[in-house]
Amino acid sequence: xxxxxxxxxDGSGNRRWWDGLQWTEHVVTGRPAxxxxxxxxxxxxQEPTASEPAPEAPVPAVPITPPADAEPAPFVPPYTLxxxxxxxxxxxxxxxxxxxxxxxxxxxSWPVAPSPQPATGVPVVGIIGLVAVVIGVVCACFxxxxxxxxxxxxxxxxMSLISLFLRGxxxxxxxxxxxxxVGAVLAAAVSFLVLATSSIAENGDSPFAAPGDRPSxxxxxxxxxxxxxxxxxxxxxxxxxxxxxxxxxxxxxxxxDVIFDLPVVxxxxxxxxxxxxxxxxxxxxxxxxxxxxxxxxxxxxxxxxSYVGVSYDVxxxxxxxxxxxxxxxxxxxxxxxxxILFSYEEVTGTLKGANY
Length: 356
Known about the structure:
Elements: E1 6-9, E2 15-18, E3 23-28, E4 89-92, E5 98-101, H1 124-140, H2 146-163, H3 171-203, E6 209-211, E7 235-238, E8 247-248, E9 261-264, E10 271-280, H4 289-308, E11 318-324, H5 326-331, E12 336-347
Antiparallel strand pairs: 1-2, 2-3, 4-5, 6-11, 7-9, 8-10, 10-12, 11-12
């Protein structure tokens, strides 16, 4: 039910103008006396404020005396209780927040701090990590600076990982991690290939040990190109395990053979060769095949007479030697020369003290 516009008691002893929807600022002081007459000779009307237009000239309320036999009408207040207020109209603030309006007055728009927007920049850590990873992968492919490259690659990987936990775009960090993993595999493969190629180029087809000028076995009965491992009673012994007094069957090697070990047979078995001296040459840079051959030959010749019993000039025996190659010198620290007596005829027993 809507209360019509008019002057009503506002509960404070004054009469206030009700415009049908809400109270206004127009007030008439004084309470009407019993019988319908006002105690004030002239009602005092407060002027409306400048912000609100003056209502139409109100008609003074005339009290109505109900008949004696009429039942009293229930009092209808010109206002509504808070629980009976209509649903407020929503008002949208400039910041995008809505506030309800009550009592017909527009809702106040309160300033609201804007929510933080997602960061759209690129973390500097991610960019630095990506650059470090790329440079590290390139450097790791070169053996000379491989250590620095791997260290830089590890630093870039860590920085790329950290950038994923920072605000901003994630693509530099993700790219850095992918490049680090793939680049590490690639750099390892390239480094292995470079090292293998360098080793092959340096070693070529050089044997582990190279024989000196071996005496010709022409006219002798020999095993020729027989596989040394198939000789009866032979045991293949690596160069570093050979000993003075070991007896060797005749095996002719070519310049294309790669020699890692020699066949050793019991000296009671027919053979042609016997190791009579093993010594190490002076350490240092590889002197070259020719210079090393001269050193080996001189050392073997000096020990010939003391082992055989006669000088090399009058002996029927000859000698040759095995010397380190450049490969064994550099990669196996080989400095050992094996001096070997050679008989043009097969013998049994040792040649030590043969005196011929």
